[in-house]
Sequence to fold (182 residues):
Amino acid sequence: MAYKAVLMDSAAIDRALTRIAHEILERNKGLENVCLIGIQRRGVPLAERIASKIEQIEGQKVPVGILDITFYRDDLSMLSEHPVIKGTSMPFAIHDKKLVLVDDVLFTGRTTRAAIDALFDVDRPQSIQLAILIDRGHRELPIRADYVGKNVPTSSSEVVHVHVTEVDGEDLVVLDDKKKGE
Fold:
């Protein structure tokens, strides 16, 4: 398939996730009370990969949760008459934990806001940090990522697609022109 540009290949994604894992450890001075939470859909495998890298570095597992923000989205009525729920799984208490939300692309900030709302409906964490594979700009809310794999300035007529093996059968980040209706 032809794309406008390939932004990251498999090796670049792996290097970015390794760097993010190191930055999480450094900023939090280790793993005490740190938990990763992947935002459904592609944030989940990215969170699991970061957790695996942290375990390789520290020799210690970091808990990973899964967050479905479908009902917290402010554009739910525009998405679908019957939204697909992928499920939330938080196999640990989040009270007083340092949570690292993980997602594939940071754009307007609305997904992150919805994720924060969802987390506070569960309990009150000590802090929430944000790890993003691609930051493409165009924020509509005052939200910024603490950990960024790659900053990619884009126009509003472009779209960033993140492909991960677990969902798409390949690791690739591409830039393309937005299709009509997208």
About this structure: The mean pLDDT is 92.
